[in-house]
Amino acid sequence: MADITWEDAFCGEGASCYRLGVDGEGRSYIAVAGQEAAYLSDTADALRQMIRDIKAGKADHLLAD
């Protein structure tokens, strides 16, 4: 397993808590809080782009009720 430094959890309404992390090799990680062993990993640049896209509303269709 990678040596990941996890940030504090980001929690939405209810129990939706996620953690972001990085390792010493420049990779970024996303996991459900409490389940950090089952993470999604990519480059830091890919994480930056995903966050930009979410802020720009490109994932809003996923939130439709």
Outline the structure in words.
The chain is an alpha+beta fold and 65 residues long. 18% of the residues lie in helices and 31% in strands. It contains one helix and five strands. It has one helix spanning 44-55, and strands at residues 5-6, 10-11, 17-22, 27-32, 40-43. Strands 1, 2, 3, 4 and 5 form a five-stranded antiparallel beta sheet that branches. A hairpin with a 7-residue loop joins strand 4 and strand 5. The chain is flat, with a radius of gyration of 13 Å. It starts with a strand and ends in a 10-residue tail after the last helix.
* Alpha carbon gap, first and last residue: 37 Å
What class, by secondary structure content?
A: alpha+beta
How much of the polypeptide forms β-strand, as a percent range? 25-35%
Order of helices and strands: EEEEEH
Instruction: Indicate the low-confidence ranges by residue numbers.
Output: none
Counting DSSP E segments of at least 2 residues, the number of strands comes to 5
Question: What sort of overall outline do the alpha carbons produce when their principal axes are compared?
Answer: flat
Number of helices: 1
| Overall average residue pLDDT | 89
What integer value in Å does the Rg equal?
Answer: 13 Å
Q: Helical content, roughly?
A: 10-25%
Largest sheet: 5 strands, antiparallel
